[in-house]
Specification:
The chain contains 8 helices and no strands. It is mainly alpha-helical.
């Protein structure tokens, strides 16, 4: 089915569909909208992107289309080694400065919202309300995108995949996190200036520090070209 959809656009976005100019070109959004209409995932995919190719529709042998079918099953020892490798990877990521700083700023933000967000909203200032909405959206997104970036980067170092040095998944994930860090820092500054809240100003500084650490860990991330957003892949 021919469409004007942009491949992989939803992989490197902030999932804030209500504010996105590309929903009409996003397969993920189309499936989400179709799910709302029919409630069935399989039917939603068919509505959004078309029915899957029927069995026997091509003369090419299945093993030629999917050569990984010939890969043998891992042995019990290989499975144990893989499990140990994943545990070691998790420990490395949990100990990384990026993870530690991200967890700290997430905790600080959570406590601020519990203690002070109601007072900030009470003023009814549209600029402050907009800043609060941004911060609530980004609070979990940043940590999730950084975790994905760190996982991908670590797998690259240990498994030696031959990926592009810029156009790879970990740089793309890190770039999304950096964009959210930029706007969240600005949002905290807005709240600090509008309300005189010293804790909000401190959070703006903490996010700036985290952004610097992310840029050190992923020095090429800002050069990553996100499909659709940074260049139009037709």
């Amino acid at each position: 089915m021919r469409t004007e959809r942009i491949d992989f656009i939803s992989e490197y976005c902030d999932r804030w569909c209500e504010r996105c100019a590309f929903t009409s070109r996003c397969s993920s959004y189309a499936v989400q909208a179709a799910m709302g209409m029919c409630g069935d995932f399989k039917e939603a995919i068919e509505l959004a992107v078309g029915a899957p190719r029927r069995v026997g529709a091509t003369a090419v042998d299945d093993s030629e289309q999917r050569p990984w079918l010939d890969i043998p099953e891992p042995t019990p020892k290989e499975l144990r080694d893989l499990e140990q490798e994943e545990k070691a990877r998790k420990r490395r990521i949990d100990r990384s400065p990026v993870t530690r700083m991200a967890n700290r700023t997430t905790g600080m933000s959570y406590h601020w919202f519990r203690a002070r967000s109601d007072a900030a909203r009470a003023g009814g200032d549209a600029v402050v309300l907009e800043a609060l909405e941004i911060l609530e959206w980004d609070s979990h997104l940043i940590g999730a995108k950084l975790h994905r970036a760190l996982m991908g980067q670590d797998r690259h170092h240990t498994d030696a995949f031959d990926d592009d040095p810029v156009q790879n998944d970990w740089n793309g994930s890190a770039k999304v996190a950096l964009i959210s860090l930029d706007r969240s820092e600005a949002a905290w500054q807005v709240i600090a200036q509008a309300t005189g809240d010293a804790a909000a100003a401190h959070l703006a500084v903490a996010l700036a520090d985290l952004r610097g650490e992310v840029e050190r860990a992923f020095p090429l991330a800002r050069r990553f070209k996100r499909p659709g957003f940074d260049r139009d892949k037709r």
